[in-house]
Design brief:
12 helices
Length: 346
Amino acid sequence: MATVEMHLSRLRTDRERWLLSASRIALIILVGWFLLARWANISLDMRTQAGIYLFGMVALNLPYGGYEHMSNLKNRGLPFGARYIVVYLAMVAGFVALFFYSPVAGLALAISVAVAKGGHGGLRVLDTLVGTDHLRTTPQRALAAFVRGGAVMIVPIYAWPGDFAAFSTFMIDIFQPGAFEAVAPYYGDLKITLGAVFAAAVVTHLGLGFHRRDGLTTWAVDGAETTLLIAYFVVVPVVAAVGLYFPLWYSLRQSARAEAVRSALPDPDPESIPSPHRVIVAFIVGAIATFGLAALIATLAPNPMSGGTLPVSGVAFFSVFISIIALPHVVVGGWMDTDRGIWYTP
């Protein structure tokens, strides 16, 4: 174990360095571009933003989510794999039922899932590739995860309230048209409250981390990345920002973490490596199941085209769909699978 920890304490390969650097450079470029665009009075219409979102989330990020589960389940055995899939499907069914029964509660849970995924996934990348000596306790780690994940959802609620409220309405209207009107009067107060809570969390996280640091490096990297994430979601319009965040930040960084873990562990037994045709079959079955679920929801939902135009409706529908499969992704694949999990770090 000591050897593994020493191996993970530094970036060892050009691939890991490149992936981590690419995630930072991508967000810096986007922040710079949108600042220049704002200065030049250039804006993206919602149709263009929707196209960016759908390309980023469907074409780029959705396959990576399937890859995470494939990597996690291989060589784990049938009993474990069967339990994993059964619990996963049960959570999917429960989340679908929640959206049909109470879409406002479903939306609240969907936002929480995005915060949890961005936060805890980001924390494990820090553990593996940067170091977290400034995060000494479990509550402090939870606060760090909340800050990283909160940047993904809470910052856009405050910085882009109109667009966020519009797409919240579209998502809820898929299942119960007009239901958002009951909570709309409280949206302004919610925005201010969440903004204040998040600002306090950022100050506490950075201040406590600085106080408890061993050295300056890990705290400084954490602080710089936190600042970059906040700037990104303040400057980049929310639909495009979310659509590009997951493939350009989350997936790139998880790929770097996975590469570090693979290179730190002993080479696997060649006999235990699945054959290519089994991997292909698993991907095909997973793709059919994934898009079959999307088709089922679209068929049963009373108003799947809630946004009116195809791109905007696609963003609203896919935001619901991705949150439904992201809940067990985080809970089953990340939190419950303590032996390995999708964010495994030795």
